[in-house]
Amino acid sequence: MAYEDFLTDCFGELQKMQDDLNKAYDINSFTNWNYDQTSGIITLSKPDETINFRYYQVGTYSTASKTWKWSWDNENTSKNVVVDIEKIKGFGIANSYENLINGEFPSYDEIGWELSSICCNLIGGIGVYRPVVDHLKIHIVLTELIDNDLAEREKTKYVDCENHERRRRAFICQHLKERSKNGFEESFETFEDMEFEYEDDDFVAWCNECEKLRIKEGGLSEKCWEEGKFKIVCEKCYFKIKETNA
């Protein structure tokens, strides 16, 4: 199929999606937005209502340079929300669709809506939200509405680190430091960027001395947490500390 014909089909589908999205949630009535790239959640709010969606970022259109930039070609976009490059770029290569292959290229204002419609077709979604920051129009595909309480719980699982920006949280006892060698005990074996099996899982580690108390208590009891004076660090710090202490 010629690119123009494929785009026409995708764009028609997106228009129907947008109608359904606006009927269900009236998203254009929300006056504030905030997205959290690490958790992949965008929050829309107005004085009397707040809603949350999971999302992925398609890319940005710059009104200053008049260029489109795919999220997979943008180092400022977290990999947690980057559009699926294999599905988009791979499809573009297979069909010789240049707009799906090049990471950045000169274009026109509506390109973001067009490419977002293709992403909805190839990857899925329930509609598109397009916030604007300065000269950048950010095109985001919403994938599902999620409960506000769940959204807050998920967002609190991430912390801002002065060395590693925003990452998943982790807990360590007071005795574990990056340049120490005090042993390293965990509830289960971990590795960086792993997906947790259960929603309530966290990275938690303690030293050899705290392990003695844990064994005496028959588990990681409240007393263990109090005497260990556990603190929160980011995931990256956690694995640097693990490397030197394990």
Structure description:
The protein is an alpha+beta fold. The protein contains 7 helices and 13 strands. Strands 1, 2, 3, 4, 5, 6, 7 and 8 form an 8-stranded antiparallel beta sheet that branches. Strands 9, 10, 11, 12 and 13 form a 5-stranded mixed beta sheet that branches. Strand 7 (about 130-135) and strand 8 (about 135-145) form a beta hairpin. Helix 1 (about 5-25) packs across helix 3 and helix 5 packs antiparallel against helix 6. It starts with a helix and ends with a helix. The model has no long low-confidence stretch (mean pLDDT about 95). This is DUF6882 domain-containing protein. It comes from Flavobacterium ginsenosidimutans.
Quick overview of this protein structure:
The chain is of the alpha+beta class and 246 residues long.
Write the layout of secondary structure elements.
Blueprint: H1 3-25, E1 32-36, E2 41-46, E3 49-62, E4 67-70, H2 85-95, E5 104-106, H3 111-122, E6 127-129, E7 132-133, E8 136-146, H4 148-155, E9 158-161, E10 165-172, E11 185-186, E12 203-206, H5 208-217, H6 222-228, E13 231-234, H7 235-245
Parallel strand pairs: 10-12
Antiparallel strand pairs: 1-2, 2-3, 3-4, 3-8, 4-5, 6-8, 7-8, 9-10, 10-13, 11-12
Helix pairs in contact: 1-3, 5-6
Protein name: DUF6882 domain-containing protein
Pfam families: DUF6882
InterPro entries: DUF6882
- Percent of residues in helices comes to 25-40%
Overall shape: it is: elongated
Averaged pLDDT, please?
93
- Number of beta strands: 13
What's the main sheet like?
8 strands, antiparallel
Radius of gyration: 22 Å
Regarding quaternary structure, what we see is: single chain
